[in-house]
Amino acid sequence: xxxxxxxxxxxxxxxxxxxxxxxxxxxxxxxxxxxxxxxxxxxxxxxxxxxxxxxxxxxxxxxxxxxxxxxxxxxxxxxxxxxxxxxxxxxxxxxxxxxxxxxxxxxxxxxxxxxxxxxxxxxxxxxxxxxxxxxxxxxxxxxxxxxxxxxxxxxxxxxxxxxxxxxxxxxxxxxxxxxxxxxxxxxxxxxxxxxxxxxxxxxx
Length: 204
Prior knowledge:
Elements: H1 9-18, E1 22-28, E2 34-39, H2 42-45, H3 48-60, E3 69-73, H4 76-88, E4 91-97, E5 104-105, E6 117-125, H5 129-141, E7 144-153, E8 165-170, H6 182-185, E9 191-192
């Protein structure tokens, strides 16, 4: 495993900030919620050295857990699973969207053996939807989910998945249901970011 010094929450915050990944405005999240803060993780993930440092720290936190496979959901989880697995000396695989964009499935010949010790990695934790979907994949194959590691936890530890959760960056970010959003009430234009552009994207 890569021998690097542990980083603090402040160190991770500075990595995101330096990459201009911490955005302020009025954003539509993938969960359907609205927020004045958005984490554009791919602004960080575009830099291989940053990915190496982040994933080395994720791997370090589970180095003594005998991880046998690292699993991540598409899209950011592909990069993270590969790099964390490289640090742990094991294999990294990813779960893709299922039929009709529902749930997660393993394709491309990927599999998890019954009892195999799995570390689940993801990029940004907001509501936990993609993590839970990927957890279901582990259960389906009979794997042993040892823990979860994410780049950033927007809930600051408010979600309990029943296994150890390690977040490099912990934030307590405000989120609103659309009907209760004060930014909408104030007429602040809504921006949708991410990989699936829709008509309301970048309305400013």
